[in-house]
């Protein structure tokens, strides 16, 4: 059996070293569902080309706001259907692990479900059109912003939006790479307003939601000059 620990969220990419250490202890490899290298599809191709006959996937969610477990099965099934060469058997842990402890991993590995190839695909009528959002919030997840709490900024921002009743048709929140005013980390910018914020800790993120996104008034205490 070939084991792959799959980081589900951007936070798992940030914690790559922890994920790699846990994988080494199990003789496993690491892949990422989003914004990390290698991608799950790329790692599955590599292992299949090496002759792996059974590949076990365990999704890892070490941080806030990971996509649902179903996306791990969707991506794995899509790869399996599209695979041109020999296809290994894929099995997936039925739950995400939220710690890298041996107990948590052992528990996840005790309940596995095979990929049949009939799982839902990557498209849906619900995902056809651009949302009707009025603003897009760009949260920097570059190295400096991440090191200075960008993950907690993102979590606070999204939770505050949920509490305010704001969804994707109001505000679209997007992770980005470096937005450049790194000395002001964590950085958040809001478009099309062309308003940039620096030193956005969780309290400031909540203030941005209440003041800027709900009431339409920028938070001047953390606004960066343009």
List keywords for this structure.
single chain; 226 residues; alpha/beta; 5-stranded mixed sheet; 4-stranded mixed sheet; 35% helix; 19% strand
Describe the protein's architecture and organization.
With 226 residues, this protein is α/β, with parallel strands linked by helices. Helix content is 35%, strand content 19%. The chain is built from eight helices and nine strands.
Outline of this structure?
Helices cover 35% and strands 19% of the residues. It is α/β, with parallel strands linked by helices.
Spans with pLDDT under 50 lasting ≥5 residues? none
User: Helical percent range?
Assistant: 25-40%
SSE string, helix = H, strand = E? Answer: EHHEHEHEHEEHHEEEH
Q: Biggest sheet, strands in spatial order?
A: 2-1-3-4-5
Principal-axes shape call:
elongated
- In oligomeric terms, what are we looking at? single chain
- What's the number of helices? 8
Average pLDDT rating: 95
Number of strands: 9
Q: What Rg do the Cα atoms give?
A: 20 Å
The secondary structure category is alpha/beta
Strand content: 15-25%
Largest sheet: 5 strands, mixed
């Amino acid at each position: 059996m070939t084991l792959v620990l799959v980081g589900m969220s951007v936070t798992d990419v940030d914690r790559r070293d922890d994920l790699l250490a846990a994988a080494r202890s199990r003789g496993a490899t690491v892949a990422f569902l989003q914004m990390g290298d290698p991608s799950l599809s790329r790692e599955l191709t590599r292992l299949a080309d090496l002759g792996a006959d059974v590949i076990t996937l365990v999704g890892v969610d070490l941080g806030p706001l990971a996509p649902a477990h179903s996306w791990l099965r969707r991506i794995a099934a899509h790869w399996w259907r599209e695979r041109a060469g020999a296809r290994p058997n894929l099995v997936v842990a039925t739950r995400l692990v939220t710690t890298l402890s041996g107990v948590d991993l052992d528990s996840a590995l005790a309940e596995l479900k095979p990929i049949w190839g009939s799982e839902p695909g990557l498209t849906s009528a619900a995902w056809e059109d651009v949302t009707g959002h009025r603003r897009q919030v760009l949260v920097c997840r570059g190295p400096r912003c991440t090191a200075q709490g960008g993950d907690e900024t993102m979590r606070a921002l999204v939770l505050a939006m949920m509490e305010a009743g704001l969804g994707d048709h109001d505000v679209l929140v997007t992770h980005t790479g470096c937005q450049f005013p790194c000395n002001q980390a964590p950085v958040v910018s809001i478009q099309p307003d062309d308003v940039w914020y620096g030193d956005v800790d969780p309290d400031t993120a909540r203030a941005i939601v209440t003041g800027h996104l709900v009431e339409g008034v920028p938070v001047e205490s953390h606004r960066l000059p343009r």
